[in-house]
Amino acid sequence: MNELDRNRLKEFRQLRQEIRHSEQYLIVGIDVAKDRHYAFFGTATGKTLLKRFVFDNTYQGFRKLLDQTEALRVRHELSKVVYGMEPTANYHKPLGEGLIELGRSVVLVSGVTVKGNRESLDGRWDKSRPWREEGFCQCGGFDLTGEVFVL
What we know:
Elements: H1 3-19, E1 25-31, E2 36-43, E3 48-56, H2 59-75, E4 80-85, H3 92-101, E5 105-109, H4 111-122, H5 129-141, E6 148-150
Parallel strand pairs: 1-4, 4-5
Antiparallel strand pairs: 1-2, 2-3, 5-6
Helix pairs in contact: 4-5
């Protein structure tokens, strides 16, 4: 493991410890797609703040996500934000890199982890959109145990 990977792993472990049951974090779970992304906003304590938020895979859509995130963060008096998404082809890269360039915390959540989390929470096996972004959020905030990586 090279130095960069060691630093990323250390950063992830620290973030995971901070997030668990924290009342400071807004967690944004994003289901990434080619043309349109779907987001779920929640807290590490399990509170749903916004179940479904759709934004286009464009600069305007990116700004819409940032504006919605900031509005919810302020409204619910949360001090930190973390974005979680599943790596999907290359569609996640512009969004993830844009968030990172702005200094945002971003984690990648494996599809296997999301699927297992969704099934264990409520028995759903389907991959329908409304449940996927919620699954990313839940993996990102409530049970950061599986394969999750900080970008």
